């Protein structure tokens, strides 16, 4: 049976500008050699998708990849290996913990056959989606950067800290001054590949527990384009306080890097589920997923063969995803995700829901930004961005995500960086592949909140449940917008300093 669906997916990063700098300790060496700004507008658009993989801008079922969902949520049927091999199928991965198996088979009747295995509740296609389109990125003439730098004693401020208005917005420095830096907390970053030898990340990367779930690729980001989404997100959570580059919200948290999307931005749902389970089983206290997709409630597609109703398949896909997030939650993991960048009211979209922000036991984060911060450092840092999704049902918290306002003109200088369009400084500055970038999106908001979650976990020595972490995140957030929970801020904009007072 073919699987048709209405689907749209992307990584929630909207705007990027880059400053590619030498990763050298010497400030003189820190000169931008390239700067470009690009605005990508991603409007919600439903795309009708056929069962062909030819159009790689859209989500498609993978014709020979299947997800088997057991009736049990905590185990797989005994003897399933033998039954599957008897069908000529290959087991790609078994997740006994949640009763899921991912299988390859070229048998066109595989689905019908596998559904007959005792203890199997459903068999659906796995899905691949392009979550991020590198064709829409700028091309940067990246310097091939030597990283044979020497990092001196930790005494200086990290030289790009003056660019990090997001740290001011969440009162990160006050939390650090109180002695809370995320020490003792582990944050798993589920994303594209990462710059594993970036001097800002190396001190905190927990390589032993990091993992790649993308067949044919490695954990290290490996594209010529130096913007690396995963590297940017990781730096917001936990770039080291090492007198170099930038600082993350939780600069002493350990970073478990988990590659669930390939460097071109494609990812299978099975890779994401494996990443969630891996993080939960390898000591993560917090998971950050700066990824997002709209999945329809119902799907019915007219084909030459008649009408195909995929509603059940879609519901089962979500059953599988929820098993992964529920498993992590029960193992004590606080899960943060981006609310998405389509500027839609999540309370009032009739036919779609946003995932993984809509999964069970995850915290969804909307994005805020100043307007013209480089022109006026006293300006409000907590304005809802132009792109952020909103709605009380779909937003739990708000955090800095950055924006790129065309009304902000001219060139500005902030800290060590000058001659840059003033509006670029309203984006979030963090690590990229062999350098640093500005980027904006709810992809950047979620890791600010994940960093605050890490500060909370660190303060409590890891002995705190995800429901308690959520409660503290919400109660310590700064009230914004309408009193109480509201559409753009949820329970408020996260505050690191207030969070560590609980
Ligand atoms: Ca640093
Ligand atoms: Ca590198
Ligand atoms: Ca409010």
From TrEMBL:
Is-annotated flag, keyword Calcium? no
Q: What is the active site of this protein?
A: 191 (charge relay system), 229 (charge relay system), 443 (charge relay system)
Mind telling me what this protein is named?
Subtilisin-like serine protease
Which residue numbers delimit the Peptidase S8/S53 domain? 182-492
InterPro entries under this entry?
Peptidase_S8/S53_dom, Peptidase_S8/S53_dom_sf, Peptidase_S8_Asp-AS, Peptidase_S8_His-AS, Peptidase_S8_Ser-AS, Peptidase_S8_subtilisin-like, Peptidase_S8_subtilisin-rel
Q: Does the keyword Zinc-finger belong to this entry?
A: no
Q: What is the lineage of its organism?
A: Bacteria, Pseudomonadati, Bacteroidota, Sphingobacteriia, Sphingobacteriales
Q: Which domain of life is it from?
A: Bacteria
The record's Gene Ontology biological-process terms are: proteolysis
What GO molecular functions are on record for this protein? serine-type endopeptidase activity
Tell me where the signal peptide lies: 1-17
PROSITE patterns found in the cross-reference section: PROKAR_LIPOPROTEIN, SUBTILASE, SUBTILASE_ASP, SUBTILASE_HIS, SUBTILASE_SER
Q: Which UniProt keywords apply?
A: Hydrolase, Protease, Serine protease, Signal
What family does the entry list? Answer: Belongs to the peptidase S8 family.
What is the organism field in this record?
Solitalea canadensis (strain ATCC 29591 / DSM 3403 / JCM 21819 / LMG 8368 / NBRC 15130 / NCIMB 12057 / USAM 9D) (Flexibacter canadensis)
